[in-house]
Amino acid sequence: MSQKLEQLARDEAFMARALALAERGTGWTSPNPLVGAVIVKDGRIIGEGWHTACGQPHAEREALAACDEDPAGSTLYVTLEPCCHWGKTPPCTDAILEAGIARVVVGALDPNPLVAGQGCAQLREAGTVVETGVLEEGCRHLNEVFFHFITTGRPLVVLKYAMTLDGKAATRTGASRWITGPEARERVHRDRHRFAAIMVGIGTALADDPALTCRLEGGPWRQPLRIVVDSQGRLPLDALLVRTAQEIPTLVAVGPQASAERTGALREAGCSVWASPPAEGGNGAVNLPALLDHAGSLGIDSILVEGGPALHGAFIDGGLANRVQAYIAPKLFGGASAPGPVAGRGVALPADALRLSSPTVTALGPDLLLECAVSPSVESEATPCSPAL
């Protein structure tokens, strides 16, 4: 093996370690990215760290603080380009230069306009050797949410549903608990920790009275913002989402026709209420694109939509979904009237189907989790629309 290939192999091994460290911040860093850092001197790791939470020191500073010897002349491996601006914490480039780091290996460049290559440029100008693109695909995938949020200003939207092998999301009587087994449900709770917000429509809120919380053992676990799309403000004051709103934030998105009496009562009970501008079509529905813009303004970088067919259909019809999670159980419900997981307008011909890409399949006990990305080209051609949820 050539010297260059040997160096690349070493770089990839240390970057893989940095990626593993970065994942430890899952659920806590939002809306900041997940970042891990490893400092290597004479082939040995002398310090490592990761970004533990928004507002806390960045991974590079954590790794420098953890060094058990002088880091001068060492190599820093970091999954995302070091920041070069003041935010809630000082610039990491300053700390790197002050420590005398000789070489910096970066996984992916930061799309944040405040950085966007400037961090690497600043280090190079000061004489530091900088190399980029090591395990770049993995580093970008790790921060899919951050990359989407920082470039669009909107949260990454993932539609999640469970269905039987014959495509039913409930029986003909509307019963849906439980379609999947405990392993799949545990994965859902892990995602509730990972996502900044969970969203349902008023139909799901009325039918299931859900908590929409992460209820895994151990922890600590972060609880997501709960969002209810409720055009008329019908969410009962004795609903679990309302009764727990003082402890776990709950946002009720209402339409233009919701009464002041209902919205006032929800606010008095501890919910935040967001009044939607009129939706396209003027049917009193919640304007979903505007709701996503509002969520983005709150720093919500990801939403797991656990809605029913109507809400899922609205996101699909509006071209507002970025990913789909389908939990598939090896069961058959049958029944012509048993609902599927997605309603909306639907398509007339198979050739008009929404194309999904990059499928992955995970076995969870007897069930399968199929995850796909929504094709950007199809998404961009869709017309925003909202149902009367």
UniProtKB/TrEMBL annotation:
Binding residues annotated for Zn(2+), in chain numbering: H58, C83, C92
Active site residues per record: E60
Molecular function in Gene Ontology: 5-amino-6-(5-phosphoribosylamino)uracil reductase activity; diaminohydroxyphosphoribosylaminopyrimidine deaminase activity; NADP binding; zinc ion binding
Biological pathway: Cofactor biosynthesis; riboflavin biosynthesis; 5-amino-6-(D-ribitylamino)uracil from GTP: step 3/4; Cofactor biosynthesis; riboflavin biosynthesis; 5-amino-6-(D-ribitylamino)uracil from GTP: step 2/4
Residue numbers binding substrate: S176, R192, L212, R215, E306
Catalytic activity: 2,5-diamino-6-hydroxy-4-(5-phosphoribosylamino)-pyrimidine + H2O + H(+) = 5-amino-6-(5-phospho-D-ribosylamino)uracil + NH4(+); 5-amino-6-(5-phospho-D-ribitylamino)uracil + NADP(+) = 5-amino-6-(5-phospho-D-ribosylamino)uracil + NADPH + H(+)
One GO biological process term: riboflavin biosynthetic process
Cofactor binding description: Binds 1 zinc ion.
The protein, known as: Riboflavin biosynthesis protein RibD
Species whose genome carries this gene: Adlercreutzia hattorii
